[in-house]
Write a structure and sequence with these properties.
The complex is a heterodimer. Chain A is α/β, with parallel strands linked by helices. Chain A contains 13 helices and twelve strands. A six-stranded mixed β-sheet of chain B has the order 6-7-8-3-9-10, with helices on both faces. By secondary structure, chain B is an alpha/beta fold. The longest helix of chain B is centred in the last third of the chain and has 18 residues. Helices cover 37% and strands 23% of the residues of chain B. In chain B, strand 1 and strand 2 form a beta hairpin. Chain B is globular and about 55 Å long. Chain B contains eleven helices and ten strands. The chains are: A alpha/beta, B alpha/beta. The interface between A and B is large, with 44 and 47 residues.
Chain lengths: 353, 282
């Protein structure tokens, strides 16, 4: 059991990437394309996203529902089915045993990468674990095909891993319903990390949990990441989690990446008005100032606004925002944003917050 | 002296499971008492983790569950006596509920304005469609929407924040004096969450509705509530003025809860950045 509940804070110094980034997403466009009675419909869930994730870092991805963050991680994991298709761009991993382009692999090669190099922590622990099979069988179902050991050796490997993540090996005998929500989520994290993957995608693993349990699960994610030296892509819409866990942070809005930088820089000096709003509207204990909600509603990805997709809700919108979509530009060192106003004068965005 | 709006007196709820041989007893709500004054609308928050009995307590206040022992009085009247159809309708027009996920609360095949019309026909004196529409529009305006915007729309055509505001408007149609909101913002996106939270504040201040706000999010609780209670395993472990309790919790469980809150300010505590943000109450 983890007794210490404090998550390890994000590392302060910017780790200089010694090697090439582990994940390179280059100008990725992935659309849901449907054709019904001759009418083409296109939902641009991931639209021109480029990002790099280094080794040994936790990269946070924030954004509201229908901002395309789930579509993006599905594309990165290579787990997409029609009508969702990659239209343009590439997703390249630079694993220790060679570089791989996810969309140039055969299905066999892809499944060989899964779990051993690239794994996934999902949100609903109850729907990941089979309710009628004991936890030990879940481990066998998920991990056995990806390791070279079998039988008693495999059980020993699993037990050793559980000890490493401070879980009692007795949970192997339990059924999912016998464990509490937090415990189940810990088991799914153990499940995703048992093969020591280099890249872990975590999709809102703590959203369904209570505050106390959430803190324990987050510190577990941090601890495992440091122990394995892997990279984690951590997705959640909870900005407080990002502040306490991630090293770098990307903000998505309406299918586009709008801001990216070291988490601390993003919080300290947001360069996109949407990020500035997200941060300033966070309620804090001890702060009684009135907070404003954002006007308007999230745009539809089937028919996004022209120009900058945030302009209908943006307090700073100027003429050019209606016409031209801003590109991601490095405004401050290691801190990119797609905003016309910030690109002209980065201090103006701070004023809204 | 006029009776209180709501009195919860030593309420217990015990669920028993299983038969004669293996019986398990779950004491979901254990000796809970509090009251809301009639003349002073307020946001009363119930904080607790899952399994602390907060939703069971809400169910009893809404009169959909009967307490095992103890009693709940609404405007001086024991809820046990609210039995007949007429009494129940009258009670429902005073006490309304809002639930966690608006997409679950609305039938996806039913247009959202239908809910408002049927609430208007049931709880107000409106006989004609025009009157019902007028009532619906009135309620929608209180939440910053209008009937023209939502007329004929289905739940999937609206954002979570909009839909939750429609749910609140539906609750307001009958001019209730108490709204029970069970985790109303935990499924709503960050950018829209504050809109809904601010709406509760507005309802309290401008319309004079008391709100029982059930949550496990201490930060929003601090932001809107006047008084709160913290529940653990069915018992109230601490209660009182929201600001006082959250600024300096006394009970070990409340302290643990308070410390578990992830704060943006604490993330970089030992750095210059920490100075630029309002000091944290510890």
């Amino acid at each position: 059991m983890i007794t210490e509940l404090r998550p390890i804070p994000p590392s302060v110094e910017l780790k200089a990437p010694q090697t090439a980034p582990l994940l390179t997403v280059d100008r990725l466009k992935a659309y849901y394309k449907t054709q019904l009675f001759g009418v083409d419909r296109e939902v641009r869930a991931v639209d021109d996203v480029s990002l790099k994730i280094n080794r040994n870092e936790i990269y946070g991805l924030a954004g509201e529902s229908s901002s395309g963050k789930s579509s993006l991680i599905k594309t990165i994991a290579g787990a997409i089915r029609p009508p969702f298709r990659v239209v343009e761009g590439s997703v390249r991993f630079n694993f220790k045993d060679g570089e791989r382009d996810i969309y140039k692999l055969s299905p066999q090669e892809l499944s060989a990468i899964r779990w051993s190099h690239l794994s996934y922590i999902m949100q609903g622990s109850m729907s990941v674990l089979n309710p009628v099979r004991r936890i030990k069988h879940a481990f066998a179902d998920f991990a056995l095909p990806h390791v070279s050991v079998k039988g008693a050796d495999f059980t020993r490997l699993v037990e050793r891993h559980l000890k490493r993540v401070h879980l009692d090996p007795a949970v192997l005998q339990a059924y999912p319903h016998e464990l509490s929500g937090g415990m189940r989520q810990r088991v799914t994290i153990a499940l995703a990390t048992v093969c020591s993957p280099e890249f872990i995608i975590a999709d809102e693993p703590t959203t369904a949990l209570d505050v106390i349990v959430q803190k324990g699960v987050l510190s577990m994610v941090r601890e495992i990441q440091q122990e394995l030296g892997s990279s984690v892509l951590f997705v959640t819409h909870d900005m407080a989690v990002h502040a306490n866990l991630t090293d770098r942070l990307g903000i998505m809005y309406a299918g586009r990446l709008v801001e990216e930088g070291r988490t601390r820089d993003v919080f300290k000096k947001p360069l996109h008005p949407y990020t500035a709003h997200l941060i300033s509207s966070l309620p804090r204990i001890g702060d009684e100032a009135p907070k404003k909600g954002l006007e308007g509603s999230p745009p539809s990805l089937a028919d996004p606004p022209s120009g900058c997709r945030f302009h209908p809700r943006c307090p700073l919108a100027i003429d050019i925002c209606h016409r031209e979509a801003p590109q991601m530009v490095e405004i401050l060192p290691g801190h990119r944003a797609a905003c016309h106003v910030a690109q002209a004068d980065p201090t103006r965005v701070e004023a809204v917050a | 002296m006029s009776p209180n709006l709501l009195d919860v007196e030593n309420v217990n709820k015990i669920f028993t499971m299983g038969g004669l041989i293996s019986r398990t007893v779950n004491h979901a709500v254990n000796d809970v008492s509090f009251s809301l004054a009639a003349d002073k609308p307020e946001v009363f928050t119930i904080i607790g983790e899952s399994g602390s009995g907060k939703t069971t307590l809400a169910g009893m206040i809404l009169n959909s569950l009967a307490p095992t022992s103890g009693r709940i009085l609404f405007q001086g009247r024991d809820l046990r006596d609210v039995r007949s159809r007429r009494d129940r309708l009258a009670f429902m027009s005073h006490v309304q509920a809002i639930f966690q996920n608006p997409f679950d609360a609305f039938n996806p095949l039913k247009r959202v304005d239908r809910y408002l019309f049927s609430a208007a026909q049931r709880f107000t004196e409106s006989r004609t469609t025009e009157e019902a529409a007028e009532r619906a529009d009135e309620a929608l305006r209180k939440v910053g929407l209008s009937l023209i915007e939502i007329r004929g729309r289905y739940p999937h055509e609206m954002s979570g924040g909009q839909l939750q505001r429609v749910a609140i408007a539906r609750a307001l149609v009958s001019n209730p004096s108490l709204i029970v909101a069970d985790e109303p913002v935990s499924m709503i996106d960050a950018s829209l969450r504050m809109t809904v939270i601010n709406l509760f504040k507005k309802l309290r201040d401008e319309i004079g509705v008391s709100i029982i706000y059930i949550t496990h999010d201490l930060a929003t609780a601090y932001y809107i509530s006047d008084r709160l209670i913290i529940m653990q395993k069915g018992k109230i472990v601490e209660g009182g003025d929201a600001r006082t309790v959250l600024a300096a919790p006394q009970h070990p469980y409340s302290i643990k809860l308070r410390q578990a809150v992830l704060s943006v300010d604490n993330a970089w505590r030992d750095e210059p950045f920490a100075d630029t943000i309002p000091a944290v109450v510890t």
